[in-house]
Design brief:
Helix content: over 70%
Order of helices and strands: HHHHHHHHH
Number of helices: 9
Distance between the termini: 93 Å
Largest sheet: none
Length: 253
């Protein structure tokens, strides 16, 4: 037993002498950096993360707000909800169906704008030709031009006054702080206008059915039970979805 203990102690002493004599042989190698991520001085606890990852995470966090505020998504979804209320079908099509259709129509409208943003901002940033802040400034220009096409001057004047900014020489000089809320107001107004026009024919059908059922004394049967199938039948006969979606898309071209 004493021989075994003495032998183990000698082994530990030899290992200690080796550590003191050759400390560089046991220093841990720097970890491999995935996807070119440079992590200098990781053993000291200070890791440097590229700004590209920070910007990407920030954009992903703000993506729902950007989708609602800087694209035609608001107008399209408002019109679809007006149409469903006018038809009298409270849950058909479902919210998921309407939102999905609105997303793809939004992509259809915004695809040329996204291509411009990629050419002027994202591609130079990937090639390390510009910084992240410069890419952000360049990428906002195509979006600003798109939003100004569908923004009323009245709404722009309102937010210029509220922001207490000087009157610009041209609309392109306006800041995004003014353009984005003005664009949302204009899109809401346009969506309500289109929804009201869609609502009127179905409202006429409701009034006619209600007057007929009241005149013949059908008090026990609600007029909605009769008018809803008639409205759906009329909407299908005139190919309503094609007309509604076509009118919405033509309003952006």
């Amino acid at each position: 037993m004493r021989k075994i203990c003495l032998k183990s102690r000698l082994q530990w002493w030899a290992a200690g002498i080796g550590l003191l004599a050759y400390p560089q042989t046991i220093s841990p190698a720097p970890p491999a950096a995935p996807n070119g991520l440079v992590i200098p001085g990781l053993t000291q606890g200070n890791a440097s993360i590229p700004w590209n990852i920070v910007i990407l995470l920030t954009v992903l966090t703000l993506l729902p707000a950007l989708l609602l505020s800087m694209t035609p998504f608001v107008r399209i979804l408002v019109v679809f909800h007006f149409l469903r209320q006018a038809l009298g079908t409270q849950t058909t099509p479902t919210n998921q169906t309407l939102i999905g259709l609105a997303l793809f129509l939004t992509y259809f409208v915004m695809q040329p704008v996204g291509a411009d943003v990629y050419q002027v901002a994202i591609a130079p940033l990937q090639n390390n030709q510009i910084t992240a802040m410069e890419a952000l400034d360049r990428g906002s220009d195509p979006l600003r031009v798109f939003m100004l096409k569908y923004t009323r001057q009245k709404d722009l004047a309102l937010f210029v006054e509220l922001a207490k900014e000087p009157r610009p020489r041209r609309p392109e000089d306006l800041s995004m702080r003014v353009v984005i809320p003005a664009y949302i107001l204009s899109e809401l107004k346009t969506g309500f206008q289109i929804g009201t026009i869609l609502f009127l024919p179905f409202l006429v059908i409701d009034l006619v059915v209600a007057s007929i059922t009241t005149s013949v004394g059908m008090m026990q049967l609600p007029p909605v039970v009769i008018s809803t199938p008639l409205k759906i039948l009329l909407f299908v006969m005139v190919d309503g979805w094609n007309l509604v979606v076509g009118s919405l898309m033509k309003s952006f071209y």
